[in-house]
Write a structure and sequence with these properties.
The protein has 2 domains: 2-145, no CATH class; 162-332, Endonuclease - Pi-scei, Chain A, domain 1 (Beta Complex), CATH 2.170.16. Helix content is 12%, strand content 42%. It contains 4 helices and 22 strands. The protein has helices at 59-68, 84-94, 110-115, 132-145, and strands at 2-6, 21-24, 33-37, 42-45, 48-56, 74-79, 100-104, 124-127, 162-182, 190-197, 200-205, 220-225, 229-231, 237-239, 248-253, 258-279, 285-291, 297-299, 305-307, 316-321, 325-327, 330-332. The strands form 4 sheets. The chain has an 8-stranded mixed beta barrel. A 6-stranded antiparallel beta barrel has the order 9-16-15-10-11-20. A two-stranded antiparallel sheet has the order 18-19. β6 (74-79), α2 and β7 (100-104) form a beta-alpha-beta unit.
């Protein structure tokens, strides 16, 4: 993490050697590198544009900042009212994008909070002279934490699948469940990754299998309770309650091959629900709350779909585990626990 000295409005008499860059509106004679804030809100270094400053005071301005990620080297953010949430949202979105974030901080409490937001923090703190000492201390603390990095998986073509051993089956009474109808035909062995915990999702099979009691719906996955996560087409997660027509979800088969399908319709209805709990050989726990119906299926270790009404304890099912925590569905390098 870098420290930029904020010299936009005032230039201190003595500039510390402990800063990495000087932010100002004009060149300041110093051996420390200058970043110039232009009248049209661009950031320039050595007369080359390296980014933009965005003042975030509402959702539209946050969306503009998000739209810049991946297209510029730096985004300098200044938040008027809400500070932490916009910073967290941008940090999560900028992960592995190549775009770095600098944030203007204005008091002592903001320095460590923004430096360690989501346990990742911004790439540069922009501080005035009076906040320099605490910024330097915070930078040293960041350096101590730099070795703790969890890699982000960006492989869209193949999903790592494992097996979870069923440890419990419990009735959950009546609740709201979501059926996801896509605009694509799904095949036997295909489904969607859903679950109560973002780090452990089960492969819920599509309604592609014939039955004498009900016709197939080969475009549908009965995905479960509205609180559940689902893996989206961009490998983020989303709550089932947030899905809408036009969203893209990830379709995965029993071998881990994946593709993207577009949602055509969501069906929300009240139905009897059942909770399926599992644990992996590594001790990772998960659960999924589904409609208690014969047409709702998971996939066994032998790659054969099985109705949840036939599942028993100690049976093994296909799941997907992730080491990554998530912020608003985006994978990040930070600790979180769901239970």
């Amino acid at each position: 993490m870098e420290i930029w000295l904020n010299c936009i409005d005032i230039v201190p008499e003595n500039i510390s050697k402990n800063i990495d860059k000087i932010l100002s509106k004009k060149i300041i004679d110093s051996p420390i590198e200058n970043i110039i804030l232009t009248d049209d809100l661009k950031l320039e270094q050595n007369r080359k544009t390296i980014g933009k400053i965005v003042n975030i005071s509402n959702k539209k301005e946050q969306e503009y900042a998000l739209s810049l990620i991946g297209s510029v080297n730096w985004i300098l953010i200044k938040c008027d009212n809400w500070k932490m949430i916009p910073c967290e949202n941008l940090i999560a979105a900028a992960e592995s994008s190549g775009t770095k974030l600098a944030a203007i901080v204005e008091n002592k409490l903001e320095v460590p909070a923004i430096a360690f937001a989501l346990e990742i923090g911004v790439d540069a703190l922009v501080v005035t002279q009076k906040l320099l000492d605490i910024a330097i201390i915070t930078k040293l603390q960041r350096l101590e934490e730099k070795d703790f990095k969890i890699p982000i998986n960006d492989d869209f073509s193949s999903i790592n699948l494992e097996f979870g051993t069923i440890t419990g089956i419990e009735s959950q009474g009546i609740g709201d469940r979501v059926c996801i109808d896509t605009i694509s035909f799904l095949e036997k062995g295909e489904g969607m990754l859903c679950g109560s915990f973002a780090k452990s999702l089960a492969l819920v099979h599509a309604e592609t299998l014939e039955s004498e009691f009900v016709p197939t719906r080969p475009f549908r996955v009965n995905a479960g309770g509205i609180h559940s996560y689902i893996m989206m087409g961009d490998l983020s997660t989303c709550y089932l309650s947030e899905l809408k027509s036009g969203d893209e979800v990830l379709i995965v088969n029993e071998k881990g091959d994946s593709r993207i399908a577009t949602i055509g319709r969501i069906k929300l209805e009240k139905r009897p629900l059942i909770k399926i709990k599992w644990i992996t050989d590594k001790g990772i726990k998960g659960n999924l709350i589904l409609q208690q119906a014969e047409t709702v299926r998971l996939i066994k270790k032998d790659l054969i779909p099985i109705s949840i009404t036939e599942i028993i304890n100690n049976m093994e099912i296909i799941i997907h585990n992730s080491i990554q925590s998530r912020h608003v569905g985006t994978p990040i390098r930070a600790f979180s626990q769901e239970y």
